[in-house]
Input
Amino acid sequence: MGDAGSQTVAAGKPAAKLDDLMMAMDVVDTLRHQEQLVARELGQGERDEALKARLRKIYESQGLEVTDRILDEGIRALKESRFTYELKGSAGKRFLAMLWVRRGLTFGAIAAILLVCVFLAGSWWWQASSARQEAEAQRIELTETLPEQLQATAAAALAEANVEAARSAIERLTADGQTALANADADGARKAIAGLNALRGRLAQTYDLVIVQNGQSGVFRIPDVNTGARNYYLIVEAIDPDGKVLSLPIRNEETGETQTVSTWGVRVPERTFNAVRDDKQNDGIIQDRRLGTKARGALEPEYAMPVSDGAITSW
Output
């Protein structure tokens, strides 16, 4: 029995040491969670016995009995930071080690950052390249394309012009275009070229200005500014050599607006108006309906009857 008892005690020693160790760790943990207690007792330099008494009271309130040896061991372990993990190595090494441990997340973040950088760099390059291309295109347009178009259009318009008024208009538009080019004003140059093209088309037209037979052939208007006067108009249409009725841009003198119309009223003196009215009233037919003829190269028709300046597009 003596041998068996010895074996039991011997066998129980490791367990007792493990229990003691666990108990000491619990004491340390209790001390850590009693920050005010530790700060007051240890901070004031009181004896360990007073601290042990307080700890014993805490454990007794929980129904636990703790030996002085365990309490001493716990207090000593706390002072020595025995059960406290201390960071090893420098901060830089720990940072690198943490990056390696989390390399999946780290490399993913780095890859995402690199992709963003590549995207931003590509976007910047594309924008810079587009800006360079646009600047080069504008330079070519202002120094080559538009000057050539202006010169060619002006020459074509001059080739159509047979009157001095037309040539003067072409010179004026050409000068406007050249001024715009000198000021790097591409829109102004394009506007001058468009004006020359329109003028060339106008010069190339040929038609007869004919008084309308069917329907209303003439009207008179009382001006708002002078109710005692009358303005007389003959209603006309432009017919080309193929018999087609043309639509032309006509400025309405009453509104100041220009409209493209196929019939309009040409202002005439009262005697011209009365002559056409009497002709139509005689037998219902206007014998000579041709008010004027627009020849190629001219800006305006050459009138066969007396006319006044001005026109209307509605009545």
